[in-house]
Amino acid sequence: MGGSVPFEEALAARLSLFKPSLSKVDEYLQKTPPRLSPGIEELVTKLRANKIDVYLISGGFRQMINPVASILGIPRENIFANNLLFGNSGEFVGFDEKEPTSRSGGKAKAVQQIRKGRLYKTMAMIGDGATDLEARQPGGADMFICYAGVQLRKAVAAQADWLVFNFEPLINSLD
């Protein structure tokens, strides 16, 4: 997904190659519990204690994101992610093309949709990639915080408003 093919076409092509069945997804989730970056649970808890809504916006799949949201106490309606679709027998039939994250520029659209629907005065996006950075545009996020605790992408970090390698500075900023 280097940019020469629209994201939605690349996503469809990749999924059609391995056609994940519902049973395979469930098996994967049973064998591979979510791994969270150190400090994220404390950060989300502190944000919520300060009456700050938290959303998960991901180019990944709801089936993998929902368990993370559950651990973090983030309601399902605050998740924007792709959704794998299955038939009556659990066979893969596609993905929900109505999800904003299923298209190029989708994270930015999701942030704009949240802002428009909730009338937030200020929004920040935390992420590690170019598609997260894209969310900082008119009508979207006011601030982009680059989290480089897993992967430092220098081109993304160079454009961030704030670069962090762990969540401690963010947690401390909420005191």
Write a structural description.
The protein has 175 residues and is of the alpha/beta class. Helix content is 40%, strand content 17%. The chain is built from eight helices and seven strands; from the N terminus they run H-H-H-E-H-E-E-E-H-E-H-E-H-E-H. A hairpin with a 5-residue loop joins strand 3 (84-86) and strand 4.
Q: Structural class of the helix and strand makeup? A: alpha/beta
How many extended strands?
A: 7
Mean pLDDT: 93
Query: Strands of the biggest beta sheet: in what spatial order?
Result: 5-6-7
Spatial separation of the terminal alpha carbons: 40 Å
Q: SSE layout and pairings?
A:
Layout: H1 7-18, H2 22-31, H3 40-49, E1 56-61, H4 62-72, E2 79-82, E3 84-86, E4 92-95, H5 106-118, E5 124-127, H6 130-133, E6 143-147, H7 154-157, E7 162-164, H8 168-173
Parallel strand pairs: 1-2, 5-6, 6-7
Antiparallel strand pairs: 3-4
Short description:
The protein is of the alpha/beta class. It has helices at residues 7-18, 22-31, 40-49, 62-72, 106-118, 130-133, 154-157, 168-173; strands spanning 56-61, 79-82, 84-86, 92-95, 124-127, 143-147, 162-164.
Supply the key terms.
single chain, 175 residues, alpha/beta, three-stranded parallel beta sheet, two-stranded parallel sheet, 40% helix
